[in-house]
Fold each of these.
Amino acid sequence: MLGVLATPSLAAVQTKSFDYPVQMDPFEVQQATAIVNPGIEGYVTGMSVDVVNADGTQVPINRVMLHHIVFARLGVKHPGCDSITQFDSKTKIPAAGEPMYAAGEERQVLALPPGYGYHMTANAPLYMVWMLMNHRGVKDNANIRYTITYEDSEQLKPVRPLWMDVANCQADPVYNVPGDGKPGSVHERTYDLVAPESGRIVAGGGHVHGGGIETAISEPDCNNRTVMASKPAWGMPDHPFYKVRPILHEPGPVSMSGWLSGQGYPVQKGQRIRLTSRYDNSRPHTRVMGINVIYLAPGEVNEPCGPPPTDGVNIQAAELRGEPYRTKTPKFTVPLTGVDSKGRAVTISRPPGKTRAVKSGTTIKARDSYFSIPNVEVKKGSKLSWQFGTPTLHNVTLANGPRGFASDNLNEGRKFNMKFKVPGTYRLMCTLHPVGMTQTVTVR
């Protein structure tokens, strides 16, 4: 199940790649976990992830897209969570471990400044959790490939990863931006982490979805000064991110900027570290994320709010790759998806069926692969309920429309309620089953 692809030399700096095979059903949105043991002995200085074929070639995203993946070291306490709420939005389990690396559609790369590393031992297993999307109506096989660069030198200074998430302690850490602001308005959500020990922040990078402006790390106890900001680089209009179907949420960036400093940014134990996730609020953005991982080199810090480093640099991966990108958040309308006569995923304006006018308080049944009333019409101010009556998890999420909203992943009779205050057409989908499980609500 797990094999080394490249045998390193005997040099101090070594690189190993590992493949974990996955199988996907047609149009499947796969959310799964695995425990792997790379057997690394030394200090990790870099890490990356991709989806590849058996021969090592990259799988194009019009086949399979890696929406996100997290690697956590088992046996080490999560810095901010004692338990994690699972994808069903109700079951809680002990936090799996210490998240040490994560990536999304932008393929974020872990790169620590020279002289620093994340210590691992050969018997240290990693808990891997991912979300993949099969964009075709056929079964597919691929491999999650993760590559680790490490050194065996004891001269490296150890770092401690601090996972920060504005929707913290959730296996599906998403939230919704309503889009009820004027042009240029910004929606903010924050999360504070109390520094578990003193030290210096030497690296960090963030993750946002479509509509994201930045994730920023600041020190509220030091006049809220900014430590770093991770900003998105957006693909050009012809980028494949904007062409694939189905689309589960607005296309994310092609890269996020990372921050590095050999000197490090001083932080004292007990001091608050704040993550702020910023999104455009002139348009709805649903099921978004605001995550940042920072790497703290533990050590004595004598001066509260000590002087910041002078060697901090921001690095945009797309620029290093020579890839053209946009800095302004692009506007994109998430479409509904259906299947054509050839079994291909295609854009539709609405699901089949007549529009049915219903009264406020009507309950819509969410069943496997369909909503009981596919096209609904209500008066402004009406309330609708969705009842998720099957064992399989489903949700109802705005693809596009006047205001952003989404339910949790629900099942076994649980309900989600929504009051429609703004007229217009709301195009909805279940992001776990986006092909065919669609709906429109027209508010008069």
Amino acid sequence: AERAVLMLYATPVRAGRYPVVLGNRAAGLLAHRAVGHLCQADGDRDHPAPLPLGTRLGPESLTVEDDPTVIGMRGTRSFDHEGLLPRKTTLVQNGVVVGHLHTRSSAAAAGAAPTGSAFGGGGDVPRARLSNTYLTAGKAAPSDLMDGIEAGVLIEDVVSASLDQHRVGLRAGFARMIRQGQPAEPVKGVTLADSILALLGQIDLVAGDFQWDGTASWCDRLGAGRAPVSTGAPHVRLIDVAVGEPA
């Protein structure tokens, strides 16, 4: 309610390039959409092939995992829809793609082991699906992420994330300017949109304040229905990002 009142008086952000600090929910959703969706081994019309193993996506501090065994989360499963035990899969380690989520058939085609990730909603054929996807904690103190920023943007919450081929976008639900290293006035119209490699390549600090997002979240996939999922992340800083309303 307090945020809603603040947004009534928020001014539009001045479009430009800024250092950007993503809050826990924003960073978790970015990991889910920009990394997780492109590491599902059985492609579809929108994403015909996963990111190749060995692709460098970001810095050494970037590690993304998917774990359907985490206790008490929305994406937790005792078995997948092919009867296999789910297991944690590291998708990106130290900035490099090292794993994919597999069904039995995609694993056989790739010469890999299935990951217990098959899920089909509403009678759909099981496909490789995300579960509890998260960006692991880094070593920086949360206060370090805004230190030295004269003018930047802090995205505390998001309302949507999109993925079009290899271009990802985030639309902020609540954002503030950062001025002289401190959160300042709220701003509206805050969006990020760039190629995955360009956006993730701007990450330079990952904080150690990991949190799971408790929001009831769903993930849709073409031909595979909706699946309950969770995301998690610490605060993350990107050093030079285009911010503003899309053209």
